[in-house]
Amino acid sequence: MNSNPTTDQMKRGEFLRSLGMSSAALMAFYCMGTGLTACSSKSDDPSPTPGTPTTSSGLTGNAETAKGAINFTVDLTNADFSKLKTVGEFVKVGNVLIANTKGGKYVTIQRDCTHEHQDLVSYQLASDNFYCNAHGSTYATDGSVTVAIISGQAAMKLYKTTLSADGNKLTVTA
Ligand code: FES
């Protein structure tokens, strides 16, 4: 059974929205200092990327932040999730990324990078960290930023992960 602390780090977009900034103003803010070619047209709360199991017979509950609190269970005997039994593998589900990290510890983290919220984050077993292929940000498995692309870059949000007694059900909660 694995259990990880949950962080309540507010995403930068959420913070700026709380100040009343529009989406256009948010994009302008994100693009400042990074150069236009580095800017994404994605919103900061992207929909899950097609091709990942947002619906699956092995998934019960809610994995999408737009639909409410994260609270779901995946069945590791299901083909969509069975690779999670292997150390070093990861799967993206709804708005989260689940990884079986070094030593067999499950870590669940927000799937979009906190730099420009691109969906290009992966787990790297050799360095036991998360890497964003968009511009090279890296994050430790506690969500902290280890290579920041911009000053003050936010940590990744972690979710609590609980493995069932029989080792085949993984429950993820906010
Ligand atoms: S979006 Fe730029 S490093 Fe991830």
Characterization of this structure:
- The chain contains two helices and eleven strands.
- It is mainly beta.
- It has a domain at 12-35 and 78-162: Rieske Iron-sulfur Protein (3-layer Sandwich).
- The chain has a seven-stranded antiparallel β-sheet with strand order 1-2-11-10-5-4-3, with no helix packed on it. The chain has a four-stranded antiparallel β-sheet with strand order 6-7-8-9, with no helix packed on it.
- It starts with 11 loop residues before the first helix and ends with a strand.
- FE2/S2 (inorganic) cluster (FES) binds at residues 113, 115-116, 118, 132, 134-137, 149.
Sequence of secondary-structure elements: HHEEEEEEEEEEE
**Which structural category do the helix and sheet elements fall into?**
mainly beta
CATH superfamily descriptor of the domain at 12-35 and 78-162: Rieske [2Fe-2S] iron-sulphur domain
Q: Rg to the nearest angstrom?
A: 16 Å
Strand numbers in spatial order across the main sheet? 1-2-11-10-5-4-3
Uncertain runs with pLDDT below 50, 5 residues or more?
1-48
The share of residues in helices is under 10%
CATH architectural type of the domain at 12-35 and 78-162: 3-layer Sandwich
CATH class of the domain at 12-35 and 78-162: Mainly Beta
CATH topology of the domain at 12-35 and 78-162: the name is Rieske Iron-sulfur Protein
Instruction: Give every kind of bound small molecule, once each.
Output: FE2/S2 (inorganic) cluster
Keywords: 2Fe-2S, Iron, Iron-sulfur, Metal-binding
GO molecular function, one term: 2 iron, 2 sulfur cluster binding
Protein name: Rieske (2Fe-2S) protein
Pfam family, one: Rieske
